[in-house]
Specification:
Bound molecules: flavin-adenine dinucleotide
Structural class: alpha/beta
Number of strands: 22
CATH architecture of the domain at 106-153 and 167-201 and 339-421 and 539-607: 3-Layer(bba) Sandwich
Strand content: 15-25%
Radius of gyration: 24 Å
Helix content: 25-40%
Largest sheet: 9 strands, mixed
Number of helices: 18
Oligomer: single chain
CATH superfamily of the domain at 106-153 and 167-201 and 339-421 and 539-607: FAD/NAD(P)-binding domain
Distance between the termini: 52 Å
Shape: globular
């Protein structure tokens, strides 16, 4: 039976230096032999050996588990997700697309066209519809809505294929308050204006465990491995973030808030965007390897990247932002902040779609070209089922798809000298859903919602059993969702490997990771499906948020307006929603439609 080590009380106290542990003493909870899963470096060396399972296994001399690539795979599975060639617009036999100006449109002039049915495009459609715009059409390339918040089913069980949770909404973010109230996630407000979230959607205890060899710790920090110095630094880090969370500018705005547009633009805070989180931690003297590993793990979970790759502003936002994680006593009630659903954030996408007029979304519609022609916008769509081009017209358009190769879709950007999108980089992600015949080894309820691996190439898995009703037998089949992101300098190589490696290689690598949490898991695996996101998350690199790139990306071009989370340069649903609603309000103004702004009413309560 595995033992779970909880945080010692003195490690969570804010009064640094008041802890009771003797300096230099080995913590009494550090009593386990540590066997480490494959770390990121070994994993990258392993994949560098080549795309076949044989080549991978031959490079495993450095791996703690050299036999794993020879293990037979005795369960079924597949690679899921969009065909990357379709995403890259390199469809064999694709017709030569006509220029927009000379093409006779096949559709009537609409009020608004929206490109992309992810959280941002759907939020834009929601805001337009709320303001009375009925004549709108959302064009979506994939065969279903959701974008990277896509979810679905596996062997009859609901599962996420991408984004799977949101944080407790900030009462001072009106856009999010309105949206989540309309979607039935917020059911009411307390007398002091705090949202009450439908209890079924709240994550409960145990929220997270982190596994390190044969020991494990409760929460996200490996308490069982910590020395006295590690604990001192962890306390100091918490105090540091606590101070940032209490910071206010003369207008009363916090240093960090989601969406970022509501936060203070003070120079003192913006300065953090000029350096990486790793440089910031160095400067503040946070040298504990365990603390730095914890920071990397949490940032990878949230943004897909480690501290050396993201802006210190974005890193600090995670701990000190009111929409981010709050473990710090004194700022908020110390409840768990995560809200989630068995199908992940697809729950939100489906509820948004249900609020739109019938026929407002067209899937399988790849947009190839967008341009201003006279007083209208023309959009050339390639029907994914028939490969037939179709030209749409609208008074305004919202581009709510990722900004990859944007200049090939909107050639006018080149003439306008608007090439900011080339500053964006995207991190690949892998998500796998795994159906287990039963929970191996121990009661599924002893697993947390989030089960992380310390120092490994993957993040571990999220436990679908967490959503089961209390009466459900823990011996029943249940589903877990595995997550890994591939950040760092090898991002491009990893993207290629991600797309080229066969399913069986991923099945072996992922099984090996699961065995570090549940050693007897292998015979229980019934099926494993793998979903690859080649350009899953925009990387919030230093300088993007406050260095002018974000503003430039969001500036309209004629009647074309820009949304999606990468326009805000932050891979979070709050930014996706905010960007969608902001673009919708720009369009409403352009169309001369009177509306009550959801974005500008910053302290507004719901009607
Ligand atoms: C694996 C993963 C996990 C994540 N987990 C979380 C999480 O738990 N919580 C969270 O807040 N955020 C998470 N995120 C971040 C996520 O990016 C945002 O939350 C949000 O879902 C982004 O929505 P979006 O609409 O901006 O972009 P997208 O979801 O990328 O939507 C863009 C849409 O445009 C479509 N499209 C693209 N090109 C075209 C074209 N040419 N023609 C027509 N349509 C096109 C795409 O198919 C897609 O549907 C995660 C991201 C990834 C990759």
């Amino acid at each position: 039976m595995r033992e779970y080590v909880t945080a010692p009380a003195e490690a969570t106290a804010l009064d640094v230096g008041q802890g009771k542990t003797d300096p230099g003493a080995v913590a009494p909870w550090r009593q386990y032999r540590v066997k480490v899963p494959i770390n990121r470096r070994d994993f990258l060396r392993l994949l560098a050996a080549g795309p076949t399972a044989g080549a991978v296994s031959s490079s495993l001399g450095c791996s703690p588990d050299p036999g794993m690539m020879q293990q037979p795979v005795r369960f079924a599975g597949s690679i899921r997700g969009e065909d990357p060639t379709a995403c890259h617009l390199r469809v064999a036999g694709r017709p030569v697309l006509p220029p927009l100006e000379v093409t006779e449109p096949d559709s009537p002039l609409r009020d608004v066209l929206i490109i992309g049915a992810g959280m941002s495009g759907l939020s834009a459609a929601w805001a337009l519809h709320k303001a009375g715009v009925e004549d709108l059409l959302v064009l979506e390339r994939a065969d279903d809505i959701g974008g990277v918040s896509r979810g679905g089913h596996m062997m009859g069980a609901p599962c996420p294929w991408g984004a799977h949770y949101i944080g407790l909404p900030d009462p001072d973010s009106p856009v999010i308050m309105h949206l989540l109230s309309d979607l039935g996630v917020i059911t009411d407000f307390t007398s002091d204006g705090h949202p009450i979230v439908e209890p079924r959607y709240r994550i409960h205890k145990p929220e997270a465990n982190i596994y390190h060899g044969q020991s494990s710790s409760v929460g996200f920090y490996p308490w069982a491995l910590a020395t006295h110095e590690d604990l001192v630094q962890m306390r100091a880090f918490r105090r540091h973030m606590y101070r940032w969370s209490r910071w206010r500018d003369p207008q009363g705005r916090p240093a960090f808030q989601l969406p970022v547009a509501y936060a203070s633009p003070a120079e003192e805070v913006r300065r953090l965007d000029g350096i990486t989180m790793a440089e910031y931690l160095d400067g503040e003297g946070f040298t504990s390897k365990l603390l730095r590993g914890y920071v990397d793990c949490r940032l990878t979970d949230e943004y897909g990247c480690v501290a050396s790759e993201i802006s210190a502003y974005v890193g600090t936002l995670f701990w000190a932002g009111t929409g981010g994680e709050h473990h710090v006593p004194g700022t908020r009630p110390s409840h768990i902040r995560a809200i989630a659903w068995p199908e992940g954030n697809m729950f939100l996408a489906r509820r948004l779609a249900a609020l739109l007029p019938a026929g407002a979304i067209r899937t399988g519609a790849l947009v190839a070209t967008v341009g201003n022609v006279g007083q209208e916008v023309r959009v050339l769509e390639l029907d994914q089922r028939t490969n037939r081009p179709r030209v749409h017209r609208a008074r305004a358009c919202i581009f709510a798809a990722p900004k990859l190769r944007l200049d090939t879709i909107i050639p006018e950007l080149v003439q306008a000298g608007r090439m900011e999108h080339q500053d964006l980089e995207y991190t690949p992600w892998l998500v796998a859903n795994i159906m287990l015949s039963q929970c191996p080894e121990h009661d599924a309820r002893s697993l947390a919602w989030d089960n992380l691996l310390h120092g490994s190439w993957s993040l571990g898995f999220v436990n679908g059993q967490h959503f089961a009703s209390p009466g459900k037998d823990s011996d029943d089949p249940f589903l877990i969702t595995f997550y890994a992101s591939f950040s760092g300098e090898r991002r491009r190589v990893m993207r290629r490997d991600l797309l080229e490696l066969p399913w069986a290689t991923w099945a072996r690598l992922i099984t090996n990771e699961l065995e570090h949490i549940m050693p007897d898991v292998r015979p229980s695996i019934q099926r494993m499906d793998v979903w690859r996101w080649g350009h899953g998350m925009v990387r919030p690199a230093p300088g993007l948020l406050w260095g002018g790139v974000r503003e430039a990306l969001c500036r309209p071009l004629g009647h074309i307006h820009f949304a999606a989370n990468d326009a805000g340069t932050l891979p979070l649903y709050e930014e996706a929603v905010y960007r969608g609603v902001s673009a919708a309000e720009e369009v409403l103004t352009e169309l001369g439609r009177p509306h009550r702004s959801l974005v500008e009413a910053t302290r507004e309560r719901l009607d």
